[in-house]
Every structure is written in structure tokens, then in C-alpha cells.
Specification:
Layout lengths: L6 E5 L4 H12 L3 E6 L17 E5 L5 H8 L4 E4 L12 H18 L4 E5 L11 H16 L4 E5 L2 E2 L6 H7 L5 E5 L4 E2 L2 E2 H13 L6 E4 L5 E2 H12 L4 E5 L1 H17 L11 H6 L13 H4 L10 H5 L9 H20 L1
Parallel strand pairs: 1-2, 1-4, 2-3, 4-5, 5-6, 6-11, 7-10, 8-13
Antiparallel strand pairs: 9-12
Length: 339
């Protein structure tokens, strides 16, 4: 009797979080469908498995036909699709709420056994932020259509390709000042590979159920996180905290500029919606299910940040060698002076 490997469809499987999930599902022996809008831009996922094991396929979660085709025949579905700012037809409600609900509805209709939905800490239908509100609406839509779905709510995610530490570290190359909003707002950064472990566990272990909030072992303010980053890249910069009303004005101006530029400028700097998000903390709730309930020990920032932030040091990968040479030169000069 021939046993065929199980199939998982990962929506957004070529993105930051999705590709880590893709790798781990392939290692677990599953056939992986990576459902993305532009399959030709997701070829990099194919080597994650053996020949033919990982395949990018076309699907747009705003479109029912392509979404259904991507789900048909799958044993499990994982939805990793999310946006941090709106752009063109990629709107918060369309992606986080309507798209998530569509995936769940079609997964139920197609008889999928397991559904995992990646949401975010702070998801709330009553939130001031449209991002958080749409995430909350998405969770309700998912659970309405697929009550047994597992929802994962990570805090800010860090890793080699992240848009958080990389963004601020990149700014230090051309600016002596790091302007921020919400310096005292707290975060609980979570390593991307740990989020992937949680998603894979939720797919493979039928005892996993409900909603889980995923945060790392450290809980720190935004200012403290940037100070940690600066220490890692060995640079000194002034962290300038702007009042929320200033940040709000800045965000609105940048939002308007983005809209009137007809696609020439996309506001990836600071949106007015992000300013609203920064007014609250992004940490695990005291009564939430967490990594501990999944049997996963989260990775510390200290264990990972130097592995990819080293490239932002003054001499990049040669910083330690340069420092050793400077120290040696200093010792020789001292000896010469003593003579």
C-alpha cells in the first residue's frame, strides 16, 4: 500500500514568516504548496524540499476561484498573508478580514482538516488602529467559518530579513539621530523560527487548539530595543522620541503624499495608523495561551541579533578584526613610549 505525503497550502509562503514555515513543513515530510500572487517571484522556495516537494502556485486571496484551487486537496492550510501598510488594492480590510475569512470558508468547504491563521497581538475589533481592527475582524471571520482553527498572535517578529531591527540599523548608516514615536511602548520580540515552530506544531498536533499569543523571553520598551540594537552594531546614535501628536501629523503628511504621488512614493516611513498602534504595548496577555502551552522555549534576542546585524557595524564582518588590530597597535605604541 502506497502512502502519499500530506499536502499543506501556505498562503504567503514565500514571505518573511511564511518561508520559515515552508522550510519546516518540508523537513517534516509534507508536500508544500506556496500560494502567492506572483509564483515567478517565489522560485527561491523550491530548494526547501526535494524535487517537486515545494511548489509555488498562483493565488490571490481577494479572488475566490484561485484561492479555492490552491486549497483543493490540501490536508492543512496556513494563512501567513499580512500587510503593515496599505498599498493600491492591498487594503487592511481586504487582506486581514475579507481574505482571511475567504480562506477559512473555502477550507471548510473543501474538507481541510487543520487551519492555522497568523494574526497579531493587539488584534481587536474595537481598536483605534485600522491594522489591529482588521486583524480582529479577521479572527472573527476565521472562527465563524472554521471554529477549530488555531490562531497565532505574535508580537513584533525579528530575524534575518525582518523589517524592524534591519530598518533602524539601516538608518544609522546615514543619520546620527533615530527619530521614533512611542519610546516607552513595550514589545516582546519573537524570533521568526519560533513562530514557524508554533505554526507547524498547530498543524501536526491535533491537541493544539484555540488562540496563542507568542512573545519572546524579553519584554522591553522601544527605546530599550533600539539601545540593544545600537550596542549590537557598535554605533552611537541619539534616540529622539517625538510626541504622539507630532508623529500623527508626520504620518498624515506622509500618507497624503503617498496617495497623491500616483504610485511614485509608498509610505514605508511612518503612517498615521502606525502611530495609533504605538500608543499601546505589544506584549503577551497575562491569561493567554503561550509558547509554554505549545512546549516551545522561545529564543532570546541576544542569541540571534548579532548573527545578522553585524553587517551594520562600522567595518561589517571585519569589525572584530579591526578592533584587534587597533588594540595591538595601541599596545605597541605604549611599549615604544615606555622604552
Amino acid at each position: 500500500m502506497t502512502h502519499h505525503p500530506k499536502i499543506v497550502t501556505i498562503f504567503g509562503g514565500s514571505g518573511f514568516v511564511g518561508k520559515y514555515i515552508c522550510q519546516q513543513m518540508a523537513r517534516a515530510g509534507w508536500r508544500v504548496r506556496v500560494a502567492v500572487r506572483r509564483p515567478h517571484e517565489a522560485i527561491h522556495v523550491k530548494p526547501y524540499g526535494s524535487v517537486g516537494q515545494v511548489e509555488p502556485i498562483q493565488a490571490n486571496i481577494r479572488d475566490e476561484a484561485s484561492t479555492r484551487a490552491a486549497i483543493a486537496g490540501a490536508d492543512a492550510v496556513i494563512n501567513c498573508v499580512g500587510i503593515l501598510q496599505e498599498d493600491g488594492r492591498q487594503k487592511f480590510t481586504a487582506i486581514h478580514a475579507d481574505g482571511a475569512g475567504r480562506i477559512a470558508q473555502l477550507a471548510a468547504e473543501e474538507g481541510v482538516a487543520r487551519l492555522v491563521h497568523i494574526s497579531a497581538i493587539g488584534a481587536d475589533v474595537d481598536a483605534a488602529s485600522e491594522y489591529a481592527r482588521s486583524k480582529g475582524e479577521g479572527e472573527i471571520a476565521v472562527l465563524t467559518a472554521f471554529p477549530a482553527a488555531v490562531i497565532l498572535r505574535p508580537s513584533v517578529i525579528f530575524g534575518e530579513e525582518d523589517g524592524f531591527f534591519n530598518r533602524f540599523a539601516g538608518m544609522t548608516r546615514f543619520s546620527m539621530v533615530l527619530p521614533i514615536v512611542g519610546a516607552d511602548s513595550e514589545f516582546q520580540p519573537v524570533y521568526v523560527a519560533d513562530v514557524a515552530k508554533a505554526a507547524v506544531k498547530a498543524v501536526r498536533d491535533t491537541s493544539v487548539s484555540g488562540t496563542y499569543e507568542l512573545g519572546g523571553p524579553e519584554r522591553e520598551s522601544l527605546r530599550a530595543l533600539l539601545e540593544r540594537m545600537l550596542q549590537t552594531i557598535r554605533r552611537r546614535r541619539l534616540i529622539l522620541n517625538m510626541p504622539f501628536f507630532v508623529g500623527g501629523i508626520m504620518g498624515k503628511v506622509l500618507d497624503i503624499t503617498s496617495k497623491v504621488s500616483i504610485g511614485l512614493f509608498t509610505n514605508t516611513i511612518l503612517t498615521s495608523d502606525q502611530v495609533k498602534q504605538l500608543r499601546g504595548d505589544t506584549v503577551v496577555s497575562s491569561n493567554a495561551q503561550t509558547f509554554a502551552d505549545l512546549g516551545i522555549e522561545p529564543t532570546s534576542m541576544e542569541a540571534v541579533l548579532p548573527e545578522y546585524l553585524y553587517r551594520y557595524r562600522p567595518y561589517g564582518q571585519y569589525s572584530d578584526l579591526t578592533a584587534s588590530a587597533d588594540n595591538l597597535t595601541g599596545v605597541r605604541n605604549s611599549q615604544s613610549t615606555a622604552k
